[in-house]
Amino acid sequence: MSDSKPRKPRDPRTGLRTSATLATVLTLLGHTVLGFEQPASMILVALVTGYSSAIFFEWLDARVNGRQPGYRGKGWKGVVDYLLSAHMTSITMSFLIYTNSRMGVMAFAVAAAIASKYLFRVEVDGKLQHFMNPSNFGIALAIVMFPWIAPIPYVFTEHVTGFVDVLVPAVIFLLGFRLNYLFTRRIPLILSWLGAYVFQAFARWILLDHRFEAAVASMTGAAFVLFSFYMITDPRTSPSSQKGQIAFGTSIGLVYGVLIAFQLTFTAFFAVTVVAGARGALLYVSAWRRRRALVPHPAPLAVPES
């Protein structure tokens, strides 16, 4: 008989804390070593907007629904834990999009990202759950509203060359793999997305004469690794089951191929938006069917005998 104790389930907040810490370290290194092109002041703009938006929308939602805000009742540690999600969204968006020196555009994108958590919700297991990836939605909306911005500058490591230039995406990959293997459990999603991406690149090469080498070469860049291991794997807006993850990741890859065939720029963000929106619609239908099944049907009226 084994004396080993059952393994305790991992605290989901640990993964969020790890993600927030990694994003913060990457941001600081980016502005001091790697050569991020955004003004460093954008970090402050994004964080102030994210924190204030998170507090405001939570307060407003709690007031409307007659409940206590999520940041109250647990002391200052509870406030810190509550703001981790907003911190993650805000600090990553501070370097994922380039708005030149227009701070208002950055503030708009971050506020829209936080607001999406309250605008796009569906009931899952008796609780309201947002289904639209906040960072991705904020970036996609900003692209539509301000077409001159540049999401994920592909040359944002201009201050490093040679071995270090290869080391950056490698480190991001290793840390992202560890994060998703131990905490988010989204490895099937990542693998299905990568497989679908290669498939659509091959299909475009065969059908549209697009260069296969150029398509798959982007998979080695830091931007692609960030998107694959940190953007689409958000555990709150992606399926948890293995089948669901495979369907979700594959759908993003296939939608990406269709959109890029129509020469749509910044395709990845719109692909995630389309797939997340479709998943949200399915969740709405499922929730509606469950509610309908619980509604008692009136018994048929007895017909009196003549």
What does this structure look like?
A hairpin with a 2-residue loop joins β2 (121-124) and β3. α7 (187-208) runs parallel beside α10 (242-261). The longest helix is centred in the C-terminal third of the chain and has 28 residues, at 267-294. The relative contact order is 0.10. The N and C termini lie far apart (75 Å). The strands form two sheets. A two-stranded antiparallel ribbon has the order 1-4. It has eleven helices and four strands. The chain has helices at 12-34, 41-65, 75-96, 103-119, 134-145, 163-184, 187-208, 212-217, 222-231, 242-261, 267-294; strands spanning 97-98, 121-124, 127-130, 150-151. By secondary structure, it is mostly helical. The chain is globular, with a radius of gyration of 22 Å.
Low-confidence stretches: none
Run of helices and strands: HHHEHEEHEHHHHHH
| Distinct helical segment count | 11
What is the spatial order of strands in the main beta sheet? 1-4
Largest sheet: 2 strands, antiparallel
Helix content: 55-70%
The end-to-end distance, rounded to whole angstroms, is: 75 Å
What's the structural blueprint in terms of helices and strands?
Layout: H1 12-34, H2 41-65, H3 75-96, E1 97-98, H4 103-119, E2 121-124, E3 127-130, H5 134-145, E4 150-151, H6 163-184, H7 187-208, H8 212-217, H9 222-231, H10 242-261, H11 267-294
Antiparallel strand pairs: 1-4, 2-3
Helix pairs in contact: 1-3, 1-6, 2-3, 2-4, 3-4, 3-5, 4-5, 5-11, 6-9, 7-10, 10-11
